[in-house]
Fold these 3 entries.
Entry 1:
Amino acid sequence: MIAIIDYGVGNLASVQNAFRRVGYPSLVTDQPEQILGAEKVVLPGVGAFADGMTTLRKKGLTDVLYEVVEKEIPLLGICLGMQMLFSTSEEEGLHQGLDLIPGRVRRFSLSGAYKVPHMGWNQIRPAVPSRLFGDVPVDSYVYFVHSFYTEPQDSQVSSASTDYGIDFTCAIEKGNIFGVQFHPEKSSLVGLTVLRNFGELRP
């Protein structure tokens, strides 16, 4: 069973439906015992970084996420969920994240040719090897909606990148921790492949 963490964000049903399409049952929950008893855990997210972190703390879920990582349960952050894995974000001030991936979340500062938020289909360049992208072709298109991007301290954790005025990390892998800035649940067959690969992971 895959646990999808419920902390008040709005894309839970679409993530759950996408896992159902690739044959993996999931449970939307904010209950620690269900999250820690799952085979895999997903931290989805849309919205503001500070609000997301505040809600996680109020629900007592930050310690649960640290325990998920300690127990080596595969953890996937999606969009805001990936950003919250990082140390800090400069969205509306400086805010502390989970610090599971050392690095920061920065706002796009681009020329007028590039609109912010970065919204729509764009190409990704997966790293080799990658447990999430092993069978995803280079330059596949996925769907993005975000105004901030991640900047890991260690470039080795970057498992895919995208060009949007700058070359930025759009996916990370470190041990049992995974993250994607794009929305796999909205990314057609490529996104479903990424979710299937996550479902097939073994610790």
Entry 2:
Amino acid sequence: MGSRVYWIVPDSILGLELSGDLTVDDMRPLIWQSIDALRQGPLSFMLDCASLATVEPDVYELSSFSQWIYHPNSRWFAYVAPPPFFMRVMKMRHRGSSQVFDTTDDALYFLRRSANPKKRP
């Protein structure tokens, strides 16, 4: 699997590229990297799922998911092309802090605008 975490906008938007067959062993370090970044301040996330093939069912049960999405510094989660079941589960877990997009450009536009609503990107 080639999943990774990377900065899109330092200290503001963190990207997660999810690809291949996503397992618990793959997802756990991605979540912890995200939580570590959240300790520095408020962040939004773009999760690019366009190359995601399958998700191991136990991924949805990770307790660290809740720590991540309900962290006091978590802002928006923008999902790009998520598999239908993945998105249904994530929508149930989020409390109004997620959006789904077809392209990374649309997701980034939304996240940048949300980070600074008075200024257009």
Entry 3:
Amino acid sequence: MVEKDCLEDTLRNLRVPRFQELRERILRKFKEPVTLPKSVKKRGMVKCLIRVDKIFNIVNSELEKLINNLPRESELHSYQLEMLKLANIENYGDVIGKIRGMQAVLKKLWREYRLKIKASVDAAEARKMAREFVGRTISVLRKLRRDLELLDNAIRELSKLPCVEVGAPKVVVAGMPQVGKSTFVRAISSAKPQVSPFPFTTKEIILGHVNLGVLRIQVIDTPGILDRPLNKLNPIERKAILALKHLADLILFLVDPYEGAYYSLEQQLNLLRSILRLFEGKEVVVVINKIDLVSEKRLREVEDRIREIYGGAILRMSALKKLFVREVLSEVVKKLGLSEDLLKSLSI
């Protein structure tokens, strides 16, 4: 069986409690009446013990459930850890450690106040101790407020990630917005990303599969990246960079040759330069898309410009018209070190 980096099944139903929600539950539970048999002595003290136990059980069970269902840091792929940083969690392990630490503090408080309530001289003192316990419990949770909010955001980000098969080949399709990445991924794979005439329609990493009989290639559609320094990229663009860095066995870089394209050829070539520099050592295949929109002369001009910075084979296709798409896949299979006989099962 192929190993998978699949977190979405676990995370989709995982809920991080918010501070305000826990606070309201604690106060509501504290005010609930407690019914005791008539035979019970020291009724005021016993009622306070029951309230304190119920409040501790609410908070402890919520934190325990959260800790038990969250993946360990060692179980996360480097790509997932980088995505957590995009969600403002610089050190995932520290956040989990802080929650565990606060859970231990709450357990200590619970034991301490049970003893204090049992040692109370009367019901009034027991109620005073119980109220103190509630206040200190809420105070501890308030210190976790920011961490719980960050964790909730991070889980939502991680749950959007595709289920990546670690052992199967991964092709990441890259390029500037509007060069036809999503159209290409729709044409060849099981993925159906939205296609739109507007830039940045693709905001998440989208995974599709090209089934080749005994093997399948994972094709990853990424948000468009603009021609600008890394520190100027927005979170959507950074998702694409992280996919290129951590997931790609091969980068398929698409170029739009049309002179009236959304982004100029110069901007696209600048991005290609950046990708070749940033991911030196990764296999990059350059494909000129939308060849049905331009003349042969323009295609040769674009190819000459690409050759100034790129030494590999330059392919041509129209993803929309499905022209030479099979030839592009053939090059992908060859670059991945696979047998081209695998393509016989494709109907493209």
